[in-house]
Amino acid sequence: MKFFIDTANIAEIREAASLGIIDGCTTNPTLLSREKGSYKDVLKEICAIIPGPVSAEVVSMDAEGMVREGKDLCKVADNIIIKVPCIREGVKALSMFKKEGIQTNATLCFSSMQGLLVAKAGATYVSPFVGRVDDVGNPGMDLIRELVQIYNNYSFGTQVIVASIRHPQHVYESALIGADVATIPFKVLEQLIKHPLTDSGVKSFLADWEKVTKK
Ligand code: G3P
Q1: For atom 6 of ligand 1, which residue has the closest CA?
Q2: CB-CB contact of 141 with 173 (8 Å)
Q3: Which residues pair with residue 154 across a beta bridge?
Q4: Which of 75, 94, 142, 163 has the lowest CB atom count within 10 Å?
């Protein structure tokens, strides 16, 4: 299972990368809007820290505009992946990117049928937003189960990135289902590492070791 970091914050990305377990990064317009400096400079810096795929989203609403924007974003670094929304023009753009050999991430996916269409269009990744599905009272993880099954049924190469992750349970279920990637906010990454029994165990071992060294 691959772990991506879901942030555009350089300090968080550096800290996450230092763990040695981060395979990529996902950004979106909201995440980039929170950072200082030009978005291209921020993306360039992220691409230098993270050796794997770094998603950057287009904001055009027509396929030609998306492709134009995507090609421009590709100039930032070799590891940029173009994020395209799961709308009709987005499906067209995904097909066009596929023909040009440009890697893509179909984002804002909320149904398995959107996922089927973008896989047929040749998306490299699909990003189902589990947290936002949960927010409207539906089980977000069901979408992951369906996508993984449909892609397996037809041997689609599109990789499922579980996105809009809000807590460790989302990552746990993603791993059990066999999703390809979880894109994890920094706070959730910290929650995944932390365990109160590990902390109290370390504390008592250190206290006992102090007794040993004082002997
Ligand atoms: O990866 C998508 C993510 O950034 C959206 O998360 O919490 O805004 O739904 P959220």
Answers
A1: 164
A2: yes
A3: none
A4: 75
Query: What DSSP character marks residue 34?
Result: T
Give 82-113 pLDDT, tens digit per residue: 999 999 999 999 999 999 999 999 999 999 99
53, 79 Cβ separation under 8 angstroms? yes
pLDDT level of residue 201 (50, 70, 90 thresholds) = very high
Locus of tokens 């049928």 = 113
Is residue 49's pLDDT more than 90?
A: yes
Q: Using one digit for the tens of pLDDT, what is the confidence trace for 129-188?
A: 999 999 999 999 999 999 999 999 999 999 999 999 999 999 999 999 999 999 999 999
Residues 185, 187, 192, CA angle at the centre, nearest 5°? 95
Domain ranges for the chain: 2-214
| CA of 197 relative to ligand 1 center, distance in Å | 30
- pTM here is 0.96
Torsion 35-43-167-153 (CA) sign: positive
Of the candidates 29, 34, 30, the residue with the CA atom closest to the CA atom of residue 12: 34
* One-letter amino acid of 172: Y
Q: Which of 31, 57, 136, 164 to mutate to test the pocket of ligand 1 (most atoms within 8 A of CB)?
A: 164
Instruction: Specify the DSSP class assigned to residue 163.
Output: B
Question: What residues are in contact with ligand 1 under a 6 Å CB criterion?
Answer: 6, 26, 28, 31, 127, 129, 131-132, 163-164, 183
Q: Which two tokens stand for residue 144?
A: 């992951």
